Amino acid sequence: MKDEEVKVVVFDLNGTFYNKSSKDEFYKFICTKRPSRIRYMLEIGYYKLLKKLHQIKQTEFKENFFDYLNDLTPSQVEAYAKVFWQQEYPRQFNKELIQRFDALKKQGVVLFCATGGLELYVKPLFDLYTINAFAGTKVYYEGHTYVVDGLACKHEEKIRRLEEYLAGKPFRIIEAYSDSKEEILDHAEKAFLIDDGVLTPYK
Hints:
Pfam families: HAD (PF12710). The chain is an alpha/beta fold. The protein contains 9 helices and 8 strands. Strand 6 (about 170-180), helix 9 (about 185) and strand 7 (about 190-195) form a beta-alpha-beta unit. Helix 2 (about 40-50) runs antiparallel to helix 3.
């Protein structure tokens, strides 16, 4: 018997489900716990500029941006992230999307978050709001610093990670949500851009 097609909704995290940028807000949060990490501000600004000028690839940008996590073990980062998300959820999340996702869950639709954020600090969020799966940028801890494992979870990598999760099952992306024009929107039957919390049809 042919496998039934899986209905999937794919959504970005930052500026989409979460109203803000988690990489920026998590850095601010870490600085409240570890004030000495403020010294990384200039370095972060430098790498943001390189990215804006297209002088650095996404994967390299991620590795350098998160230098402020140096010397914090994965268990320490996860513990901080747990507190961070408890402070942010649900107040700083898109209420319209929460309602929509809750309805889709009841229909048995697969909810899949694909984000460029590090899985290391994103994971505790989905203990608070459960979905079927998420994919973020993977890292491993080596020599007191974090190294990106593979590619940053951006653009076509998001589709590849979804296919990996579904392990060969046929699927249809019935809806997709993002704050910027990206690959997942082009693959969806219905796609929405989100600007300052407002949903606008993409196509």
